[in-house]
Protein: Aminopeptidase N
Organism: Mariprofundus erugo
Amino acid sequence: MSGHTCAGGSGCPQEERVVSKNRTVYLKDYQPPQWLVDDVYLDFALQPSATEVISTIRYRRNPLAEQGDALLLDGHDMELLSIRLDGELLMPERYRVHAGGLEIPAVPERFTLEVTTRIDPQGNTSLDGLYRSGGNYCTQCEAQGFRKITYYPDRPDVMAPFTVRMTADAADNPVLLSNGNPVASGKLDDGRHWAEWQDPFAKPAYLFALVAGNLACVEDHFVTASGRTIALRIYTEAHHIDQCDHAMASLKRAMRWDEERFGLEYDLDLFMLVAVDDFNMGAMENKGLNIFNSQLVFASPEIATDDDYISIEAVIGHEYFHNWTGNRVTCRDWFQLSLKEGLTVFRDQCFTSDLHSAAVKRIEDVRLLRALQFAEDASPMAHPIRPASYMEINNFYTVTVYEKGAEIVRLYQTLLGIDGFRRGMDLYFQRHDGQAVATEDFLAAMADANDADLSQMQRWYDQAGTPRLSVRMEYDSAAHRCTLHVSQSCPSTPEAEVKQPFLIPLALGLLRADGTPLALQLAGEAEGCGSSRTLLVTEAEQSFTFVNVPEAPVPSLLRDFSAPVILDYPYRAEDDAFLMAYDEDPFNRWAAAQRLAMRTMLAMLAGEAADVELIATAFSRLLADPDLDAALKAEALMLPSESEVADACAVADPGHIHEVREQLRVRIATLLQGELESTHAELAAASGLDDLAMQQRKLKNVCLSYLLTLKTGRVIELAYRCFLQAACMTDQYAALAGLASCDCAERKLALSAFEAQWQGEANVMGKWLAVQAGSSLPDTLEQVKQLLAHPAFDLRNPNKVRALIGTFALRNPALFHAIDGSGYRFVADQVLQLDRMNPQVAARMVRALMNWKRLEPVRSGLMRAQLQRLSDAGLSADVGEIVSKSL
Ligand code: TRP
Ligand code: ZN
């Protein structure tokens, strides 16, 4: 390989690791690009282990940037074969190749650069850049994968139209795809063929995509509001082609919804979606050619659960919605990631909420936010939704940037109303279509379109941590006045010790003792208006007085979770039970149930008397409430997770928490056995894919999971019967997951029957791995270790890693936190192995070891020791950042 420069390719991974380690990128260092790109022409000669890429790119000096005539391009993990500048072959002394890229010291004002590189898709186990999955070629370029394909200014504020030509073996790769429109294709005489694609929309390199291989396709079409017909195609391996109907229907619903809700139409004549088995995340919004983790495409009632159906629809929507929020208007730099992700998550939340139950959707989103994002905000990786620095950008595709980001976008809608929010969106597109912008531009569009001063919103972008909103009520029975004293605070996080007050919309209502709502009239107002309203909390401390309040009310606070804060109000257990029964706001009925359950578990943890009767009675009343739909009952019955309980403890003992939570479930199940059994029986026949059937199955399976805590022969028999008779994956999976934590013969029978039935379906086998890794039986770690050698497991496949190792590390706290440290050691072992293949996935797993400071001393020491052990090994930048920030 002499004569070729190895720039940190597979032959010299150490070099790359050392260089990218410990290098922090700062938002404050942002500079506009020195060089702009007029157009990009890429020519791929596809071969599994040696693909040659010729990129022909026209550069022009950016008049708005600093002077200087050096061209700096990003690139690594490639072999550089040649460089031509305006046709002239450059000798090695005319340029410099280093670990992160290429520098050409003197270039003219305008020029064309032709660079030839050679890459190895087959050997690319990072699944970043051009790689192979299931014998097909595909790409993943967000955030910085394009620089593993050719040398380029790989930053989102450099936008250009792309033309892509590819040649490949025709028999192995009948399908050749890239962004935009197909413009030409043909056969070559050596058994190869070619195709050329053109994307007329200027885009950043992270939205580039190429797919080639042997793929079948389902085709449909969509007629836009303005009457254009768009061809829709979903590509997958042939044996999955009959599992794409739900994905196609979801896509059409998303296209219609974006027109109706935001007036946004699709802009090309063709929309393609490709499903691949090996993918680091959920899906990717490449222009006109979305690439999906096959888990988020394939569905039929036999292989996908109801939750899978809903997430497939949501993610198809999410990626489709990116076409406007992400692609047409993109990010200036990666610090602005939440500009597209927070906004697009908010849009997909509204989509699901409009199509299904809004209350259930809100509850599920908040459950996720509280369980994962609040924990991240309290961890060593805490960061604002617009971070000020990062070491590895891939580590910032987080629940904070996505889910908290969506909550901040929701705040605008809460403050401005649906119509005001829409005006802001319209102005945002009017101003910024075709541009790469910052979160400040979004804020300004919202403010300007509504003539509102939203400057305090900026703090949500700059300050990390979960604010605590404390409310105290004072009732003056003589004056019939009720005053709420509100104060806010926010803990220190790595980026800032002291926090400025946030703008917090506080939605609330006041309930009379008989459960009816009061009309709300603030002091100074002429009359009461409505029973629910939103106060604006802007200061560290503020008071709000309501008048004409005839009796001391129970306040229903933070309705619909009007801001991402921790609410602190001295509710008594009876208040929670009362709000569970009477609150007008379904979200707050759920929140009260969660609070009551949390209060009960915390009392049990402290060894205090816990009023289990009260919670059981409240649950029983909910179950019997004819006005409440089945899904809301199910949500209310699901106790806060072990990790949420751990977050509520100053020092967590995960073993004790698991015990107490299980104990509470057993006691509730004992008290309510009759009702749980009859509810289960009544709902047994729920069938079909409509919302009602899905909601009924959800409640039915929550009942089953409670009953199984009793572990009697009778309930095990019931669960096994449900397993055998299940007509859909929802029921089959629920029964299997329940049995997986019971030490009984039926457990083994069910696991092997499931394996025999589904061994040909990779994604279903992922569920089989996950239920075993999530089991609360004492030998779970032993089982997990054995499953590493099972043919259904593959360390190179992220779905399988998440199912087996991820479930154990992140969703099975009792076993992961085993007091002998065996869980920590196991996860560290796996991280070390994985890191050599796929740093992005390894970095997800290592997060399980982050929070040693919040554990009791024995576990704390054991976990820290594993972090230290990792830190002493050679790590990727991805894992290295998390380990170094945790220690
Ligand atoms: N932009 C993708 C989304 O819709 C996220 C994504 C997909 C991604 N694949 C990735 C991010 C790989 C980083 C690395 O949310
Ligand atoms: Zn996204």
Remarks:
- The longest strand covers residues 192-203.
- The longest helix spans residues 399-432.
